[in-house]
Amino acid sequence: MNRRNMLKNTTLATIGASAGMACANDSRGSETASALLASENIVGKKDVNPVNPAYFIPNRFKDKTIIITGCARGMGKAAVKRAALEGANIVGVDWLKEEGNAVINEIVKDGGSAKFVYGDVSTNETCKEMVKTAVDSYGKLDYAINNAGVMDAIFPGDPINYEKQKHLTFSRCHEATDEYWDVVMRVNTTGVFKCMREELKQMVAQNQGGAIVNVASVAGLRGFSGTPSYVASKHAVNGLTKNAAIDYAEYGIRINSVCMANTATPMVERAYQLVMAKVKASGGNAGMGNIKTKSLLQYTDSNHRDATPEEQVAIMLFLLSEEASNITGANYATDGGFTAY
Ligand SMILES: NC(=O)c1ccc[n+]([C@@H]2O[C@H](COP(=O)([O-])OP(=O)(O)OC[C@H]3O[C@@H](n4cnc5c(N)ncnc54)[C@H](O)[C@@H]3O)[C@@H](O)[C@H]2O)c1
């Protein structure tokens, strides 16, 4: 059963927005579902269509080298594909070896220029290796998108098995394990710090400026129920972004973050499965609240669609590009209006 039918057919209500954080629910679920369905009857109602996934700007990144972490799937995969079409030399990084390699090989097969670095972005070894690969292969590093991230402590390559993995999943503070807290903080916050450290060392040494986009979340701008480590880690990404923007402005290096709400990626699908399992195991009270969980556009859309990876990538690449020359230190709410209400 797909997620939409699930929403209609059960009293579970809301798919949250802290990286598609699915929320369980109780009796208020059916009210929320009715309200959503009612909004579909408005006269003159019009949906906003997502950007065409095939759209790109030829040669925008010609001769530019871009590191993109988390390239094996989701938004990272969409980013490496579009940036390569726009002429960039790509260094894609992921700890999913097979999937990451496949994405990069496809780019090369289609005539693009790309290398794959296998590893964990929260290790110095991987961060040094990705910058070295950029310099050894393409002579320099111009831009980076630090996109790799996790919502829970389950390795993204492992299938979901809630009973065995529940100590690794998102939980309220008093129920959360050290392992959940540590892994999410290490990947999302320490990972972004270590990636930036190596990228910035190279950009400063080159003395040619540069730009970095860190992928935070709407959970870096707001609190969400039942997901303390994710919310804390993404607030930290936004803080790191502002801090680095100040320190590197004088080197001509711009640093921004993007803060999306629900975007249709494997991360969201997995989160949904985990929440469903959590709700089932808890008898309906998974401790995940029925607070606002939809973006404005998701709420008003006839199908309550998530954002697409391509919609997010369009903004990330714009922020790297020369057109964004006056933008630095911003935590962009690329969230379909989530934080507008
Ligand atoms: N999808 C959403 O709704 C949403 C919303 C807000 C923020 N985000 C953020 O967007 C980013 C991308 O998410 P996505 O939805 O595309 O997720 P995804 O799970 O579909 O893809 C993330 C990729 O990053 C890789 N990765 C994760 N940790 C890594 C590590 N330590 N080292 C190397 N690779 C690693 C994964 O293997 C995967 O290929 C994440 O930072 C996420 O927190 C997503």
List the SSEs and their pairings.
Elements: H1 3-9, H2 28-38, E1 65-69, H3 74-85, E2 89-94, H4 97-109, E3 113-118, H5 124-138, E4 143-146, H6 162-165, H7 178-206, E5 210-215, H8 228-248, E6 253-258, H9 266-282, H10 296-300, H11 309-320, E7 331-332
Nicotinamide-adenine-dinucleotide binds at residues 19-20, 69-70, 72-76, 93-96, 120-122, 147-150, 156, 187, 191, 215, 217, 260, 262-263, 265-268.
Question: What key attributes describe this structure?
Answer:
341 residues, alpha/beta, Rossmann fold, 7-stranded parallel beta sheet, 11 helices, disordered N terminus, binds nicotinamide-adenine-dinucleotide
Structure write-up:
The protein is an alpha/beta fold and 341 residues long. It has a single domain, classed as Rossmann fold, CATH 3.40.50. Helix content is 43%, strand content 10%. The chain is built from 11 helices and 7 strands. α3 (74-85) links the parallel β1 and β2 (89-94). It is globular. Nicotinamide-adenine-dinucleotide binds next to α3, β2, α7 and α9.
Please state the overall shape, judged from the principal axes of the Cα atoms: globular
Number of separate helices: 11
Largest sheet: 7 strands, parallel
Give the helices and strands as they follow along the chain. HHEHEHEHEHHEHEHHHE
State the secondary-structure class: alpha/beta
Number of domains: 1
At the third CATH level, what is the topology name? Rossmann fold
Can you list the ligands bound to this structure? nicotinamide-adenine-dinucleotide
Q: What proportion of the residues is helical, as a percent range? A: 40-55%
What top-tier CATH class fits best? Alpha Beta
**Poorly predicted ranges (pLDDT <50, ≥5 residues)?**
1-16, 22-34
Give the total of beta strands.
7
* Radius of gyration from the alpha-carbon trace, in angstroms: 20 Å
Strand content: 5-15%
Query: Whole-number average pLDDT?
Result: 90
Cross-sheet strand order for the largest sheet: 3-2-1-4-5-6-7
